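Case study.
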Amino acid sequence: MQELKDTQSEADTRNISIDRVGVKGLRFPIQIQDKLNRIQSTVATVSLAVDLPEEFKGTHMSRFVEALHQHGPLLDVHTALSIPRELLGRLSASRSHVEMEFPFFRAKAAPVTGREGLMDYVVRFEMEAEAGDRLADFKLTVVVPVTTLCPCSKAMSSYGAHNQRGIVTYSVRFASRPVWIEDLIDLVESCASCSLFSVLKRPDEKWVTEKAYENPVFVEDLVRNVALKTQSHSAFSWYRVEAENFESIHNHQAYAVIERDLRS
Amino acid sequence: MQELKDTQSEADTRNISIDRVGVKGLRFPIQIQDKLNRIQSTVATVSLAVDLPEEFKGTHMSRFVEALHQHGPLLDVHTALSIPRELLGRLSASRSHVEMEFPFFRAKAAPVTGREGLMDYVVRFEMEAEAGDRLADFKLTVVVPVTTLCPCSKAMSSYGAHNQRGIVTYSVRFASRPVWIEDLIDLVESCASCSLFSVLKRPDEKWVTEKAYENPVFVEDLVRNVALKTQSHSAFSWYRVEAENFESIHNHQAYAVIERDLRS
Amino acid sequence: MQELKDTQSEADTRNISIDRVGVKGLRFPIQIQDKLNRIQSTVATVSLAVDLPEEFKGTHMSRFVEALHQHGPLLDVHTALSIPRELLGRLSASRSHVEMEFPFFRAKAAPVTGREGLMDYVVRFEMEAEAGDRLADFKLTVVVPVTTLCPCSKAMSSYGAHNQRGIVTYSVRFASRPVWIEDLIDLVESCASCSLFSVLKRPDEKWVTEKAYENPVFVEDLVRNVALKTQSHSAFSWYRVEAENFESIHNHQAYAVIERDLRS
Amino acid sequence: MQELKDTQSEADTRNISIDRVGVKGLRFPIQIQDKLNRIQSTVATVSLAVDLPEEFKGTHMSRFVEALHQHGPLLDVHTALSIPRELLGRLSASRSHVEMEFPFFRAKAAPVTGREGLMDYVVRFEMEAEAGDRLADFKLTVVVPVTTLCPCSKAMSSYGAHNQRGIVTYSVRFASRPVWIEDLIDLVESCASCSLFSVLKRPDEKWVTEKAYENPVFVEDLVRNVALKTQSHSAFSWYRVEAENFESIHNHQAYAVIERDLRS
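After joint prediction, the assembly is written out as follows.
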């Protein structure tokens, strides 16, 4: 085979290092080990990147994809950091960044009839590693759809209250050991007017309607409820919670955000 | 200037004519003349296409963009068909197709306080023309967000009722003269539990909450209400109405569709 | 338990039947049996609907989700129609419609080095059934990303030729037995300037660059190539092929469509 | 009129202040004054937010929308900060945040024939203000589509080179006076293999094809070129540049990011 020029390895004279270079929008089937120790198959959208020192013209893009394939599909909150660590060696990098976002499912029983259905969530892993183990950052995000019922609308109206689907995007860093995805979802769902279900029979629908009416929350309440529960845990070193309400009375969203570093 | 090869005009021997060839995803600033005879500036996403007979290898893509630029930004429901007609000549085509989708705004006063705010909708023009005026099809679509409150949830529950934002996609063809975009939006909004507003003060919020509670509709009711009003008009020769509810109790949508040809 | 009102089953007096009513945007983990007889786990976005006669006020939305759960995750091109058939009975409907869209993966070896990587595609099943087996429609769609290199740019330029990623959306109905998803993908990929790969080492990149340069295609050529291959098969009773090029020299897309009924 | 309860103004006892609360996804027609002193009409997607001290239960969402309406549609890089400043007073806030994203158009002549066409870009304003003028942050982002041609593919291949549409997202903060949107776009376009055009006749297509072939850039080169030009200006105090290539040979993207604070 002829010798092919390795343009990427050429010297670069611009004296500008690159913070992050890699691939994005790669779809890859993965398996998540869940709290019940079961394996859940899903499909992730992945990005993989490393830093690039100023002296090199380019990185070797195919190695990112190879690293992902070699790691294989199995992933859990305890071992996820192995992927960015593999990148460090394979790309001769001093810092690496990996992001994986995927749908995550839980069997959830309807509140009165107990009928089971799968609820879907979005989960995101963001991981960074540095050579020499100087850094190992793991940020876990769950995107949890919920019901929110407006306290102001309830307080003013002779009957009824506007309510809607809201989306809570909840990200955490762990103080030490990771917390299960399922526990983060439970935490968020307990802070809304009511949680969502995929199957609801008539007695269940009555139950969720009344429960939401009894638990009105603004987006402000929702993020504060999540903040309080997070801060009362010792498991977290940082969190960010954003609630976004797809208002049933407007064509725009209401939103609120709290972010806190919990390291003293 | 050297003579450049015109690859598109070469003969094709595959004996397969092409139904539609052109450009898509082109953004273009337009001006819509509205019912109050005012000019509204907005931005359209445009596609332009013609048929291609089996004997030609390709069409001339730049001519589509030139035709759009030459037509200029002004558009209304009465003159829209001039764009596909211009394509016929410019591309030597026997059939042409143009689609334009854009945000459309209306000043709308809050129901009690009268505070004005702009409500945004999506409007789509789909137009077809044939050489020799054998065809001139104009399909007008309005996408109208509304409030829907669930009749079943209201009937069963001791208090409250789940409600949510729904999206109604309403398309019509006209029997003769076009109907104003604003009138189509009014028709749809009058069929929902309540319509949406961009500005609502507290007395307005009480009003929309109670109005929605007094007017519960399933997606089935919503499309039937729109269907009834459409059929009672003599203005339309065809319609399609789809309602999609972003259920506040589920993470999926409920939807319903009715489509009818009204030519006897 | 108290007797809860069944609002949906009430009589409706508007005399308007509904073409399609159901749920949309439901995410569900599925398993696809592929050509190699292996089971592939992925995640589908599902819609399920039935017609509704004019005499009923509403359908029972929870039954759609229950039908999907009861069917279970396993799906293949031969048995897919069982889902719409189950809906007919469960919803007492005369016509049902099911749509499932999901990422689909294939191991694909790089053309020179043979390195394997997973290529991702999008696959869509659209199925309709009618009571009494009067209808059983199955439309299979594969969305295949490819390389397209412009013949005109190549013919005119002293060196180089603009090329880009294109997306081919190819839908078929079968004359009798279904064709494997993999075979439809192969058919489309063979019609482009070159097919895509997830892993390419330097000798592979040289190969795909030169192959694309040797095989320039317009969007017009691409859809005609697919059309020719489809028509030379006896397996299909109908097809539609759309090619959309994300032009590297424009900020809009070029596109072309051919649709044909092949029943004589 | 009856006295309606003001739930938002009630006391909150959770002792958690909220970083940002407001509205999102609001569409609003705006007018941008451009470098040629012309007014360009377009449509923005807007978010408006303030901080909320721990002692208040909620903010007053309608005031955000009223503030936007009262400001009116006219916007330019010099006066944009007036919107967040208005929010401070109207919402009794100590900090406010406004984001506006909109399509932006420029007439651009084809390189050989001089034919004019409109090129579309995306522009984003992100603005923060603090009470007492302690802060006035303005971040301007332009999203510029370009052509990128791969240096490695060109170096290795006997003919041709893969190229594709890339997207450069370029954000800056100004050292003192703002720089025109048009100048930021020019800066980015000059760093790519070639810039894009909406209208290209055959001689123009030959020109852009050859120009791209003569100027191959990796995503790494593209962000470094933008970085160099930014750093050689005294106009900027901070920048971030991200390039994302929709690779014509892969179904994923290559990307690179550089971010620098330029205050010494």
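Observations recorded in class. The first strand of chain B starts at residue 18 and ends at 33. The CA atoms of residues 45 and 248 of chain B lie 31 Å apart. We will return to this complex in the next lecture.
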